[in-house]
């Protein structure tokens, strides 16, 4: 069955396998351990070395925009004091990326397969079937 881009986005936002939509991308009972492959369809999740550097950048960007910028704006407009802003920024710069870790990994896979849907095994089978039907 062909996987659409909308399905890829929904699966990415829910930390599911982009290929089959089944099991979670992470080991049961752990927060940081990514499965090497999907337990249901066998999609290789741990790709080449350095593949998930994009998720690191995504995590950094979301932390900066969604957490640190509002804290700094609150301090700039004297809603909170400078000392409190520094404490919030310091603690948040450690906690927010750790809490957003799973989502950033899943979103990175989602972005990859959104722009390159033909790399999903489900879509490759569909392409191969179409080529067989044409010959």
Major sheet summary line: none
Give the overall pLDDT as a whole number: 88
Helix content: 55-70%
Q: What is the 3D form?
A: elongated
List the helices and strands in order: HHHH
Tally of individual domains: 1
Low-confidence stretches: none
Radius of gyration: 19 Å
Q: Helical region count? A: 4
- Beta-strand portion reads under 5%
For the record, give the distance between the C-alpha atoms at the N and C termini, rounded to a whole number: 21 Å
Structure commentary:
This protein is mostly helical. The protein has one domain. Helix content is 60%, strand content 0%. The chain contains 4 helices and no strands. Helix 1 (5-13) runs antiparallel to helix 3 (82-115) and helix 2 (53-76) runs antiparallel to helix 3 (82-115). The longest helix is centred in the last third of the chain and has 34 residues, at 82-115. The model has no long low-confidence stretch (mean pLDDT 88).
